[in-house]
Amino acid sequence: MYLSVCPESLDQVAASLAARVPELPSPAQVVGDLEAIGACLPAFVNHAPAPSSVAGGGRPSGEPWGRSLRDLAAAWEAHSGALGTSAQSYREVDAGPLR
Amino acid sequence: MTAPTIGDVRRARPDALGHLATRVGGHAARLRAAASARATSGPGDTWTGPASSAAGGRHTELMVTARTVADGLDRCAAAIRAAGEQVADAQRTLDQAERAARAGGTHLLDSGALASTGSVLPGSPDTAVVVARLAERARADYGAALFTLRARLTAASGRYAVSPPAQSRAPHWSSASWSPWWSQASPTSISPPPDSPIAASAWFAGLSDIERDEVIRSHPEWVGPRDGLPAWARDRANRLVLESVAQRLMAELAARRDEPTDADQPWRDVLRPQLRSRRVIELIAALDGLRAIKEVLATDDGRRRQLLSLDATGGTLTAAVTSGDLDGAGHVAVFVPGFQADVAGDLASYSRGVEAAADLADRLSRAHGDGRPVVGVTWLGYAAPTVLEVVVPGRSVAGWGPATAGSPALGSLLAGLDAAGRAAHPQQPPRLVLWGHSYGSLVTGLALRDATVPVAAAVVFGSPGMGVDTVAQLRLPPGQLYVEEALDDVVAATSRFAADPGLWREATQLSVAQQDLPDGSVGRVAHGHEEYLTAGSTSQWNLAAVAAGTTDLVRRRAPCPPWSPLSQQPPPSCERPMRLG
Q1: Which is higher by pLDDT, B493 or B562?
Q2: A90: how many CB neighbours lie within 10 A of its CB?
Q3: H or E element in which residue B336 lies
Q4: Could you tell me which chain A residue has the CA closest to the CA of B6?
Q5: Does residue B571 or residue B170 have the better pLDDT?
Q6: Cα torsion for B413, B414, B420, B423, to the nearest 10°?
Q7: Which chain A residues are within 8 Å of B11, Cβ to Cβ?
Q8: Residue B11 above 50 pLDDT?
Q9: Which residue of A has its CA nearest to B144?
Q10: Burial of B184 (0-12, 13-18, 19+ CB in 10 A)
């Protein structure tokens, strides 16, 4: 092996990241919990004035958090996949004509 | 969009909010654990070079994003938990209202109306007033909890519900150049505080310490005048504004110094040699006022004064200075001065009087009350009428104009003190008391009539009237309007503005005569219109006792029995203020 990189170490990191993705909080649960506030607080939904980013159209929403968590999980998986791809690239170089 | 009802307060579930807060906090903890260094260490030191750097940068971006979102969820959890506690407080107040209603043979409907139970005799009108006040307080507290929660959730989602930056287009780690997006963060992305004191308080609560510091330094004009923000922040901002305003006004004065007198200037023909244009007079007065503020703030006596407000944008410079740390106060007494009060001429003397009375109140609170600190506010926050304006329509001391124009500012101050106090001391917000002197008692009356927050008590002294016909219109707790009137105070004798507070039976009439005081001293008599704040006077003692909430210590005015000069009996020992008209 001519490279200083050990592809297996990249695989390990990629696997570690991938294993953590299911441990991220579920966007649906977070959104559900935040939207459940309205059920505990009558008039929370309609009480004036309605701040726009939490209450689009006067309705409280946890959606910004859901979107954030979905994007994070997707980016996390993509990062894990990219590390795996890089490890594979190094393996191909290592196994190539130079050897 | 509807305001909450009593039924809404009843049906709220603060315990369920507590569970939700715990769940949201749990989501934050899970996210933080997943992003912890031990769980997700980067590619390590076996891989070096540009590709490794780029991969490491991306790894860091994702971990920082995760921690940012976790911080935001923690803030949501804290906001939900705080709202639950506020709602529980509102329900306890409502419970008091319901008990009072039941004791009076009535019950409180979801709409807030009272209905007879039919089982016992209907309650007295006084009971109905008490129930209505408690119910309204519960409803208002509940509404404030909703508003604050929404504002805090808005702030958190706007600042912390972020997504990772887009990944490099390169399929592999070929680029060494990456720039962390958070390095681009700037305080310019923070929006100005909203006008509402409650919303402004929530806005400030949503800022990090670094953001607070930055916004005070970058935009002191946002923070200084905003009722609802903590006094320490306003003080810092207003001191910055003070310097910049002084420079601006001096430049304007230099440019206008030789302007001719305005054609409509009052007394122009009489005082022509002394008068300059109105704006130049305003500028000179404002600069004198700024100098007076600086001198008061610079007084080296160990006192921690705060410049609570400063406004030089109108024709009259207005300001408010505290006698101590307002954010730590358990009782706040706001002094509202009257005719001719201006920053340049009166801030120093009024501040001394307010400080002495607040200090005495603080001692009474510690010795006989709930022990919470008392802080006074010398509020020169409205354009008080002046002698030069006696003939100016809408500005005369004989009319309602200056008070009508000034009372909303006092109402906003009260709302701000309430909002900031509740943010700092949610379990026991500070108790607000007004001290209204002379024409300032009219401003006080109008502000109380229109107040949106509870005021615990008010003392008016030398009052020509409070602009209302009955004590009930002031919406104070029963018996919590106090009146002081010196025997020879001609202003108080006029009852110029609606009913005479000195004649109200529902008000507590206080003594200003020489009296033995509960601390063993002898309170001095106050004469005329200007001695109510005099140190060592019975009047000052009473002002302090009301401010401290130790109202059992006040000295009341002894009622005068019937007496005639023709009776050949000596006049009875009592206080009988003069009456004109």
Answers
A1: B493
A2: 21
A3: strand B331-336
A4: A42
A5: B571
A6: -160
A7: 42
A8: yes
A9: A47
A10: exposed
Q: Cβ–Cβ of B153/A43 closer than 8 Å?
A: no
CB atoms within 10 A of CB B563: 13
Which pair of tokens denotes residue B525? 């008599």
Q: Which residue has the higher pLDDT, B186 or B521?
A: B521
Q: b vs e for B464-478, b when ≥16 Cβ sit within 10 Å of the residue's Cβ?
A: bbbbbeebeebbbee
The alpha carbon torsion through B275, B280, B286, B292 (nearest 10 deg) reads -50
Question: What pLDDT does residue B120 have?
Answer: 46
Contacts 24+ apart (CB under 8 A), B208-212: B211/B187
Please give the single-letter amino acid code of residue B535: A
Residues pairing with B322 in the sheet: B377
Phi-psi region of A90 (alpha: psi -120 to 50; beta: other; left: phi over 0): alpha
Element (H, E) at B142: helix B125-160
- Furthest-apart CA atoms within chain A: distance in Å: 73
* Residue B139: Cβ within 10 Å count: 22
Pair B409, B444: CB distance under 8 Å: no
Beta-bridge partner residues of B332: B375, B432
Here the ipTM equals 0.81
Q: Residue A79: which of B48, B58, B146 has the nearest Cβ?
A: B58
CB B183 within 8 A of CB A91: no
Q: How far is C-alpha A32 from the geometric centre of its chain's CA atoms?
A: 18
Measured in whole angstroms, the distance separating CA B495 from the mean position of its chain's CA atoms is: 29
* Token output for B287: 């600069």
Helix residue ranges, H only, B369-469? 401-424, 439-449
- Specify the residue for token string 């200084």: B224
CA dist B132 to B86, B101, B136, Å?
A: 20, 9, 6
Question: How many CB atoms sit inside 10 A of residue B547's CB?
Answer: 34
B14-34 and B50-103 are packed helices; what angle lies between their axes, rounded to 10 degrees? 170
Distance CA B153, CA A60 (A): 9
**pLDDT in tens for each of the 99 residues of chain A?**
344 556 777 777 788 888 888 889 999 999 999 999 999 999 987 644 433 333 333 445 788 999 999 999 999 888 888 887 877 776 776 666 654
Cα(B426)–Cα(B89) distance, integer angstroms:
10
Q: Any idea how long chain A is?
A: 99
CA B565/CA B551 separation, integer angstroms: 35
Confidence of residue B181 (pLDDT cuts 50, 70, 90): very low
Tell me which residue in B47, B145, B147 faces A5 most closely, judged by beta carbons.
B47
CA distance B436 to B434: 6
In Å, the largest CA–CA distance within chain B is: 113
Containing B434, the helix (H) or strand (E) segment is strand B431-437
How far is the alpha carbon of A4 from chain B, nearest alpha carbon, in Å?
A: 7
CB contact under 8 A, A16 and B17: no
Task: Provide the phi-psi class of B551: left if phi over 0, else alpha when psi is between -120 and 50, else beta.
Answer: alpha
Among the partner-chain residues A33, A39, A51, the one whose CB lies closest to the CB of B24 is A33
For residue B487, give the nearest of B535, B430, B538 by alpha carbon.
Answer: B538
- Distance CA(B225)–CA(B221), nearest Å, equals 7
Residue of chain B whose Cα is closest to the Cα of A66 = B161
| The model's pTM | 0.63
